[in-house]
Write a structure and sequence with these properties.
331 residues, mainly beta, eight-stranded mixed sheet, four-stranded antiparallel sheet, 24 strands, globular
């Protein structure tokens, strides 16, 4: 639940069969990139980077080990630390995990592990809202009261203009929407401990598509992505389990890439792939020098710079940010 890797864990090596294609699969592009470790100035290093967002020429990354969110420019300069506990805050602060920034770069929303809280800060790092995610109402009535009721655990957050936000909640398996003042408006999904639970089992990362406004929730252990309208209606879900290249085993970060594509990293397979909003596999990413400079292991989150095409990923195994730069096309 805290997101820390257990002691004694070893890297899992999985061999992926060569892609042979399938009926209706279409052409899957192989995009080559040049992986580079993103170097921070002043000898600074991240302790356990998790989620990251690119906004207005800045990189925002939640650092679980340092218990804050770090704002970094594209040259690796540390601009400020955010989401740190105020001296006068009463109660448990928790560990920053999911993060999102509004389009103007003026508001930042952060979820905190080991708490029920989602907090919103201004660009200076001052907290302007503290939202507590509640137990689903249906769990507080009837036979559900006989069940063990865990503490809600918000995982990821996405800001929706003008001021509302979506939260993926892990303990009960739901997506919850709050308005601009932090009031709960709607919930998507039947709590996972109930017999008729659907569609989520382990919701983690969440993304809002800038063109359609639809929400995409990654269900990591179920290895699927669920698409939800901004009105809270479940549109569909998709997975690429069981295929060869492009398979999802433990999907984690999801982000909108260029041309409306969805970029998804798989933390188990250490792979990156692009899908359409409907879940069609469009492309897989590969290092130009797989032997000497392979794709980063243990990728967690992903974001793409729309101007340069550079893709940024965090690795909790390497405790670093990596940049995947598009390789020049061969003539």
């Amino acid at each position: 639940q805290s997101g820390n890797e257990s002691e004694g864990s070893e890297e899992l090596t999985i061999e992926i069969a060569k892609w042979e294609g399938s009926d209706g699969a279409g052409i899957v592009a192989r995009r080559h990139v040049i992986p580079e470790k993103f170097i921070l100035q002043g000898g600074f290093s991240l302790k356990e980077p998790t989620d990251l967002v690119l906004r207005k020429g800045m990189i925002y990354v939640s650092d679980m080990g340092a218990n804050n969110v770090v704002a970094i420019d594209y040259y690796g300069k540390i601009i400020r630390f955010m989401a740190t506990k105020p001296s006068d805050y009463q109660g448990v602060w928790g560990i920053p995990w999911g993060v999102d920034i509004d389009e103007q770069g003026k508001r930042i929303a952060v979820t905190f592990l080991k708490t029920q809280n989602v907090r919103v800060f201004d660009w200076r790092g001052e907290m302007i809202r503290d939202i507590v995610v509640r137990i689903p109402p249906e769990m507080l009535e009837g036979e559900a009261l006989n069940l063990y009721l865990p503490t809600p655990q918000p995982m990821d957050v996405v800001l929706e203009e003008p001021f509302g936000l979506w939260v993926s909640e892990y303990s009960y398996g739901q997506a919850v929407y709050y308005d601009q003042v932090g009031r709960e408006v709607l919930r998507v999904g039947i709590p996972k401990m109930l017999d008729d639970a659907e569609p989520f089992r382990t919701p983690t990362f969440i993304e809002r598509h800038g063109e359609t406004g639809d929400i995409h929730v990654v269900d990591s252990i179920s290895a699927k992505v669920v698409r939800v309208s901004n009105a809270g209606e479940i549109i569909d879900s998709w997975s690429s389990q069981g295929v060869a290249e492009g398979s999802l085993s433990l999907p984690k970060g999801i982000a909108q890439g260029q041309n409306g594509e969805l970029l998804v990293v798989d933390g188990m397979l250490s792979t990156l792939q692009a899908f359409s909003e409907e879940g069609k596999l469009l492309a897989t990413y590969h290092s130009v020098d797989e032997e000497n400079f392979p794709m980063p292991i243990g990728m967690v989150a992903v974001a793409q710079d729309s101007a340069s095409g550079d893709i940024y990923v965090t690795s909790k195994l390497a405790n670093a940010i990596f940049v995947l730069r598009p390789a020049p096309e061969k003539k």
